[in-house]
Request: fold
Amino acid sequence: MSGFLADVEAFSGFYRGYARSVLLFFARRTLDPEAALDLTAETFAQAFASRMSFRGGTDAEAGAWLFVIARRQLAQYFEAGRVSRELLGRLGVEVPRADREELERIEALAGLGAIRVALREQLERLDVGQRQALWLRVVDGQPYTVVAARLGISEQAARARVSRALRGLAEPLAAMATSVEEER
Amino acid sequence: MSDEFRVLDELERRLIAGCYHDGQPAQHAVRRPRVRRRYSWAAVSAAGIAVPGMLAAIVVIASGGVTPSAARALADAARASRASATPILASGEYWYTRTIFSTITPFPLPPRVIRPGTNPAPTLIAVNLRQSVETWIGRDGTIRQRQTTLSERFADAAARRRWLASGEPLPHFGSSDSVSSGDGWFPPQYGGGGGDVGDGLFSYRQLLTLPASTRALRSRIERAQAAYTHRQQHGLPVKVQPGTAVGGIQLIGRPSLRYARSFEDLNTITMLLSTPLPAEVRAAIYRVAATLPGVRYDGHAKDALGRAGIAVAIGTRAHGMQMIFNPTTGALLQTSMLVSGSIRGVKLGPLTQTIAAQGIVRSLNSLPRGVRPIGRLLPSPLTVAISPRAGTPTSTFYLTMQGAHTSLRPVPFPPIAEVNGPTAPGCDAYLIPPPIVNLTHAVTIHSLGHVSYRYKLQPSAIDRTAWCPGRYQLQIVGNNPTSIYFQVR
Reply:
């Protein structure tokens, strides 16, 4: 597959083939549709920037390669507590914001309701601060400004606390996400 | 997709606008800051290649001739080197080097509004950047690399005004810290940046036994360069390919082969001079430098830290490479990529790499006496070990990750890992790109204030029933990446 993503049509076909799956993949593992959208955007930007390193020959290999990048993005998100926008910044791409209706549709398609219910049982594994932050953000669905205000910390600290909590639960979350993906 | 997510449609439009200009892939998007030294020069004339340095810049090569004064200065440095002490690394010790990188680099300013169908190439803003790169290299080639941003300032008031007017957060170059366990080669001083970071021209033992005669040493270096290039092309798949996602210095123009060879050799020489060499070999390396066609004497010069030295260079003062050394000790002080020109209105400046400190230390987390830490010297990143180091196609390898209690998570969290491996019939498709490896937690070990987790690594981890013969690199992915090598016979 030499000349991978060499033109707009190729990129468009690749994007349309995988964007929805990647978005839902991230949504199920971050429980945050907005973060999932940012991660999806950065993943495709990374794929474009490193397209020369792709040496597979089939669509399936291209998809597997894309999800390698996606998993790396997810690991960095859990590690850093924020979405890297390195490549998006270099490309000059601003991620569009989804309206409330679309965010709800992402949540529904990702099956986040079921995952959240199951997640409650896992919260005891977290320390108090992380548990509170995760509950407010993920279970109560509060925006980060509210999470920060309720916990008396900065918004940035609230984001970091939530992502660290998610990292602590990454294993059960991945299992839940996989089970949801298999059902659908 | 339109029926479901308008936001994904809009994202597609914006990505296409950013990634493609006039239907062609945008080139600016693939250059990113990297720290990587390479020896290979083979691809220079083809597309450009990473050479010492971490920052995107462009060097245009011109032609040059041999000057007697350069030869004299280098001969003096050879004599001074012969009288210097030979640093000998004992087992468990590391060669520490602190290098200060300094340059003007273009940083993209994202457009505030992107209209569908437009071509929003970002405006570039000039930033003065200083970073330190500290390396700890062990006899077995284990390398820790810690990169710290010392300062990042707009190059001028206009750049600052333009950026602030955009409302974007201030540009930030960040820091990193990683460890790669050794595989025998004594790696380049500035490792990392993807690919086979643990590879090098020589092992530590070979460095100690290099010939001290000029002709024999030059021949030995050339053979090592050829072997290194062969390994890079036929060994581990290298994620960063020449001319694509490399940062470093991008060479453009059509240098003569003779001149390009000198440039490559000077590059290798500066790299070797930064390693712990026997005094006689150090002296011979300066004598080899004196034989390079195109080496020019630039006279007395001061490095970025204000230390006085002698400068020699390849190319012109506007386009080339310069090294400054201490004539009384033979110590390499600074290497500069001399740059001119501009990229979309941003004037480029030289990229200097100044060796600020060097010495032998007892651990991956200590500094030579009298060297002050930059920022808070955190515990070293996780260290990993693999057993056995060499196995058969059906071997089970055991990966042990160890760190201080505080640096490991409280549960044996399965690390996210990737494998690079040999290319061979039936072995290449799945390794490029590297697959995510499924590591199985085997046991947790508590010992002397440290906790270790051991994981099983079998061919099934990469969906294979057997390993292909060759050299493998396992990378633990994360902010502080860690890698290790193993062999399959």
Summary: The CA atoms of residues 77 and 83 of chain A lie 5 Å apart.
